[in-house]
Automatic annotation (TrEMBL):
SUPFAM superfamilies: Glyoxalase/Bleomycin resistance protein/Dihydroxybiphenyl dioxygenase. Residues 3-129 form the VOC domain. Signal peptide: none annotated. It comes from the Bacteria. Gene3D superfamilies: 2,3-Dihydroxybiphenyl 1,2-Dioxygenase, domain 1 (3.10.180.10). This is VOC family protein. CDD domains: VOC_like. InterPro entries: Glyas_Bleomycin-R_OHBP_Dase, Glyas_Fos-R_dOase_dom, VOC_core. It comes from Agaribacillus aureus.
């Protein structure tokens, strides 16, 4: 059994964060206060804390010819779920940092990936593997 993870992160605006994660990503909300909101992030608990002064600029690192945001989080989705999300985000005209594409094509770590920012500039990556047993392949 896989244990769910918990991640807490700073945001500039709780209402914009609620709308983004609930309406665009599809997360259910959990407990909340006037300073934080819990989200069900694909079975994991993430908590957005209102702390505008803690929101940082994102640095990048070169991966497969792309400038990947170093600080990021996300989820590994089923293949079709990833493609459905990519289509929905394109329809909503999300501003991608890295457009949806297949990375490391033909290699052991081949994966579908996409990057974009939430309203506070937190980078998110969603990825998928056709063969989930290859997630940690070298």
């Amino acid at each position: 059994m896989t244990s769910p993870f918990h991640l807490a992160f700073p945001v500039k605006d709780l209402e914009a964060t609620r709308q983004f994660y609930r309406e665009l990503i599809g997360c259910k909300t959990g407990r909340e206060s006037d300073r934080w909101i819990d989200f069900d992030f694909f079975g994991n608990q993430i908590t957005a804390h209102l702390k505008p002064e803690e929101v940082q600029a994102v640095s990048t690192n070169a991966v497969d010819g792309e400038a990947v945001p170093v600080r990021h989080f996300g989820a590994i989705l089923e293949w079709q779920q990833w493609h459905d999300m990519a289509r929905r985000l394109k329809e909503k005209q999300i501003n991608f940092v890295i457009e949806p594409y297949i990375r490391f094509e033909g290699q052991p770590g081949e994966q579908a990936t996409m990057f974009f920012y939430d309203p506070s500039g937190n980078a998110l990556e969603f990825k998928s593997f056709k063969d989930a047993s290859r997630i940690f392949a070298t």
